[in-house]
Design brief:
It is a single chain. The protein has helices at 12-27, 32-39, 43-52. By secondary structure, it is mostly helical. It has a domain at 17-52.
Length: 70
């Protein structure tokens, strides 16, 4: 994945191509933070690309609260 210049607008075919690449990697298990780091873009930008493309986002993960023992 190419590192993109920070602050540069990404539109048209370039944005569609990036969206497809990011979506494929996210679907294969990469996190949004990893994708942001790999592309040099922000977490919010990658998140927005995924949401705009209709990608089903994963939950945040981490520990969940267990039911209290009776």
């Amino acid at each position: 994945m190419a590192v993109l210049k920070k602050g540069r607008r990404i539109t048209g075919a370039e944005r569609e191509s990036l969206t497809d690449e990011v979506k494929a990697q996210y679907t294969n298990g990469a996190s949004i933070r990893e994708l942001a780091n790999d592309t040099g873009r922000s977490y919010g930008f990658i998140h927005r690309l995924l949401v705009e493309s209709g990608t089903q986002l994963r939950g945040r993960g981490g520990p969940t609260r267990a039911k209290k023992a009776s």
